Design the sequence.
């Protein structure tokens, strides 16, 4: 399968082409201008702000979904329990303010509800609060598989396990994931190139090498930081190169579009391949890390 | 293959070794001259073992070394010899492969998860067992009747065995187990969305432990070659399981049935329970044997040194052999050790002098500033003016050739005598004014210069390292005191991975500097060695696998502790020399503080002296700790086990108990005042109780 044939487009200043509009629009509330602006501009019958407890924000908006659980399954099952989602429902999700494991679980949940096509939006900021030193998450509480995103065929022979990490800015996350699966010899790192901001790629490399002794040998691969489809393709290529894999672990530690790429690859392959998505969880994420809105991407994912 | 790489120390983790390399790079470890690690583990006995150790202690290398793939390599794939000579089959499994965190949550209660996990665990572990058996059957060329008899006997363990008539082969049996596992995997996955398990799909088809113990028993009874052969389930990464899952494993260990036994590998921080499911605790020594690799290795410095020596010579030998260079091992080792540039204090001093050309050394500037402050505060004895301060400085500089270390010796004695004169404790020597103090210092210093005995002998002998550390810190110069292979062995404090990692980084940094470290006649600079040691320390610091708030507290405690230890070293008037150890009275401390200390211990951030320290008056054993030596270079702290500080109750609480961490700054400032001029004048004495108010 060629993942790069999926449709993507970009818009300046948040001026999205919504076509005839959506039935449902979801967006994670992170108190950033880029998410608020899109929320206002999108054409949808119903718009829902998702207030993740990780940001610790009190949201004074209408149509806010709030739930106290940090766990992706409990949180999102509660979200959709009161919403009528049918296979024909037209859905758009702004992933910019989403928590990564929640995003992946949400996509799988929509897939199980029979949704075959979803539009996802991601807005690039003009800049981050502290450039390369921006802190996105707090202390890691746990490293585990994302709920509902494990393998259907867990192989007891672990000799040829592969781990593919979409490696972002936080070398601590990379180190924690690598430690948690320290017995996996074959580890690949997908770096965001081109990156979202100037210098981010160089910084990414530096951060990766900073965690070198925890993660072992580094085999870098590349996919644009803004492109889920090339990311899925890069994963596919790695797996094709390792046909004797025993188990496959994917870890989304980079941008939200690359996270989307991991979800896409998983959904198209988890029935036939032993794929797991693993994540280092933190109960704290920092809101308002980004400023301004530069470009908004729209990705149309078609699900199996 | 490692021998194709440019750095013989590039592989620091057993995971990165192939099975063949596990054998090639195996170095036996002898805790005593006549006892080796394989005699301690002793696969010939049924006693289960819990093999415990921190990261990098060599646990995985050891466990894999005893596994079936390595046994085959050892006997050149002659499986008959494996059975007849070794008399055991080592079935190595990584427990983390179970992804045990799946068996939790999803709206399903723990008792249901417990049943499913136990059932799944047996199916999972027996897959490896059946694959090994299949290989052995093929190698032994067993007849079809025996094979079918075996398969049917195994199937008879299942409640629905009558429905399994069509399974006639080992492959069929393996596939059957695969299908059962697959159904559970699928149910677990779906449960995240459906919030329930379909019990028809995950119906338990055999009694607990019937498979894991039953299959080895069947094979032993029907295949004569297996007579007297043990099946050792080697289960690594026990620390990754939930507590209730660990208790289940403990229960299997407790209930083990011939011909099965267990070796469980665990990181120290994850070896948290000895309880079984019934709530009873297993007894070390009678029901299982705990093999604490860290303690074994650290208990004998000499033997660890020999082990480390074998480790690096073995790597070098393989590296040079791959380049068709054969050398006697002792010569190889000597040549390698000789490459390391030796630490030279004079070189550090010269660098500091060069950095301060045409300007006053920082410690002299500080002295000047402190005297001026003291004059304002009326604490400078008879000194009244800046001109007099200049004269003091001139006297301190006298005869030192402006050598910063010599100046350190003199300023230290000056601070000591100033303090004593002010407090009147020097009256017997009549050193109650600056003139007498400076005369005394210069007289004593002349003795030093003339090779006569005097006050400076002791200062130079005991405090030189601390003063060099102070000078390097003040002048932003690298303290290259950690140089040479022997020192790296000492720094690694019984941890082979740390030792190999330092060497790996030494080679890397040396290559970057164009030193050609592996070629004949080359020299590995002090700079490369410094960078390697510092980098390894940084890795060790950042690599602790500690999660959540506990991790936050542990790192905060480490920060406070090192700040406090630094205070003792980097001050005007250090009390003790080279302080790297501290002791506490356990009965004084809160549970919270002790828990953090224990956490730092299981992550090898702190190393506890098992002998402790006997209280001078009470005779009670106090707990004595040292900061792991590998971490010391991060803060320019000493590694010698010489100086020890007592952390009184409240200070220890402010360091190790997050509830009292707000008090730390105040304790820190008070101690700082006691150790530095001119504030030490105000303090009642160094042994004055430091209190908050």
Sequence:
């Amino acid at each position: 399968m060629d993942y790069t044939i999926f449709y993507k487009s970009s818009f300046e200043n948040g001026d999205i082409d919504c076509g005839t509009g959506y039935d449902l629009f979801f967006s994670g509330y992170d108190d950033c201008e880029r998410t608020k602006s899109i929320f206002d501009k999108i054409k949808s019958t119903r718009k829902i702000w998702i207030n993740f407890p990780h940001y610790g924000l009190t949201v004074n908006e209408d149509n806010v979904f709030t739930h106290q659980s940090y766990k992706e399954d409990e949180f999102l099952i509660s979200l959709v329990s009161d919403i009528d989602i049918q296979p024909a429902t037209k859905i758009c999700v702004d992933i910019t303010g989403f928590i990564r494991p929640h995003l992946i679980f949400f996509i799988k949940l929509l897939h199980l509800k029979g949704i075959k096509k979803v539009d996802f939006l991601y807005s690039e900021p003009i800049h981050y609060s502290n450039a390369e030193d921006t802190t996105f998450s707090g202390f890691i509480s746990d490293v585990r598989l994302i709920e509902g995103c494990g393998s259907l065929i867990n192989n007891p022979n672990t000799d040829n396990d592969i781990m593919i990490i979409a490696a972002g800015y936080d070398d601590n996350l990379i180190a924690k994931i690598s430690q948690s699966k320290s017995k996996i010899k074959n580890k690949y790192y997908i770096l965001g190139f081109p990156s979202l901001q100037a210098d981010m790629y160089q910084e990414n490399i530096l951060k990766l090498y900073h965690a070198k002794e925890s993660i072992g040998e580094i085999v870098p691969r590349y996919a644009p930081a803004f492109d889920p489809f090339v990311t899925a393709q890069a994963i596919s290529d790695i797996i094709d190169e390792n046909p004797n894999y025993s188990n496959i672990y994917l870890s989304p530690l980079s941008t939200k579009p690359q996270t989307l790429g991991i979800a896409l690859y998983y959904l198209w392959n988890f029935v036939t391949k032993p794929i797991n998505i693993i994540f280092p969880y933190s109960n704290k994420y920092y809101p308002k890390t980004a400023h301004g809105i530069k470009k908004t991407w729209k990705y149309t994912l078609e699900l199996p | 293959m490692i021998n194709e790489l440019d750095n013989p120390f590039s592989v620091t983790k057993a995971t990165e070794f192939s099975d063949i390399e596990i054998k090639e790079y195996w170095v036996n470890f002898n805790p005593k001259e006549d006892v080796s690690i394989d005699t301690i583990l002793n696969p010939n006995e049924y006693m289960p073992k819990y093999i415990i150790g921190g990261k990098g202690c060599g646990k995985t290398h050891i466990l894999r070394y005893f596994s079936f793939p390595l046994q085959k390599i050892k006997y050149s794939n002659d499986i008959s010899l494996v059975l007849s000579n070794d008399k055991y089959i080592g079935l190595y499994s990584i427990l983390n492969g179970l992804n045990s965190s799946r068996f939790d949550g999803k709206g399903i209660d723990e008792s249901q998860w417990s049943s499913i996990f136990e059932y799944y665990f047996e199916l999972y572990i027996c897959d490896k067992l059946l694959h090994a058996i299949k290989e052995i059957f093929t190698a032994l060329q067993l007849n079809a009747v025996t094979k079918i008899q075996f398969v049917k006997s195994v199937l008879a363990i299942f409640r629905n065995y009558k429905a399994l008539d069509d399974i006639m082969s080992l492959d069929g049996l393996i596939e059957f187990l695969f299908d059962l596992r697959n159904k559970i995997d699928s149910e677990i996955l779906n449960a995240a969305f459906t919030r329930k398990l379909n019990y028809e799909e995950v119906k338990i088809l055999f009694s607990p432990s019937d498979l894991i113990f039953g299959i080895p028993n069947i094979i032993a009874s029907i295949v004569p070659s297996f007579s007297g052969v043990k099946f050792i389930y080697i289960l690594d990464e026990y620390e990754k399981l939930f507590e209730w899952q660990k208790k289940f494993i403990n229960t299997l260990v407790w209930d083990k049935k011939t011909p099965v036994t267990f070796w469980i590998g665990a990181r120290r921080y994850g070896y948290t329970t000895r309880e079984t499911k019934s709530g009873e605790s297993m007894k070390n020594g009678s029901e299982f044997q705990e093999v604490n690799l860290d303690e074994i290795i650290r208990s004998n410095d000499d033997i660890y040194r020999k082990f480390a020596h074998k480790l690096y010579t073995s790597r070098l030998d393989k590296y040079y052999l791959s380049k068709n260079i054969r050398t006697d091992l002792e010569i190889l080792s000597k040549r390698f050790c000789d490459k390391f540039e030796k630490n030279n204090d004079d070189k550090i001093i010269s660098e500091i002098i060069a950095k301060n050309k045409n300007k006053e050394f920082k410690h002299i500037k500080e002295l000047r500033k402190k005297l001026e402050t003291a004059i304002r505060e009326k604490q400078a004895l008879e000194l009244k003016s800046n001109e007099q301060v200049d004269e003091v400085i001139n006297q301190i500089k006298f005869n030192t050739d402006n050598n910063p270390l010599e100046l350190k010796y003199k300023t230290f004695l000056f601070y000591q005598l100033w303090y004593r004169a002010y407090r009147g404790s020097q009256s017997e020597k009549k050193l109650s004014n600056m003139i007498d103090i400076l005369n005394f210092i210069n007289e004593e210093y002349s003795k030093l210069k003339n090779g006569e005995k005097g006050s400076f002998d002791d200062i130079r002998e005991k405090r030189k390292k601390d003063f060099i550390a102070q000078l390097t810190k003040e002048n932003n110069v690298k303290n290259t005191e950690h140089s040479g292979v022997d020192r790296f062995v000492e720094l690694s404090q019984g941890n082979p991975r740390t030792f190999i990692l330092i060497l790996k980084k030494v080679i890397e940094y040396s290559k970057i500097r164009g030193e050609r470290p592996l070629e004949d006649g080359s020299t590995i600079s002090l700079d490369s060695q410094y960078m390697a040691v510092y980098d390894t320390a940084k890795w060790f610091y950042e690599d602790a696998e500690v999660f959540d708030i506990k991790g936050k507290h542990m790192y905060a405690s480490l920060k406070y502790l090192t700040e406090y230890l630094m205070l003792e070293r980097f001050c005007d008037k250090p009390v003790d020399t080279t302080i790297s150890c501290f002791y506490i009275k356990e009965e004084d401390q809160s549970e919270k503080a002790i828990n953090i200390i224990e956490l730092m211990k299981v992550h090898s951030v702190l190393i506890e002296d098992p002998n402790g320290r006997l209280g001078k008056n009470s005779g009670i054993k106090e707990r004595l700790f040292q900061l792991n030596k590998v971490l010391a270079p991060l803060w320019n702290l000493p590694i010698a086990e010489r100086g020890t500080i007592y952390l009184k109750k409240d200070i220890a609480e402010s360091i190790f108990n997050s509830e009292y961490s707000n008090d730390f700054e105040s304790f820190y400032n008070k101690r700082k005042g006691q150790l530095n001029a001119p504030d030490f004048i105000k303090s009642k004495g160094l042994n004055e109780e430091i209190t908050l108010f």
User: Anything to note?
Assistant: The longest helix of chain B spans residues 110-140.
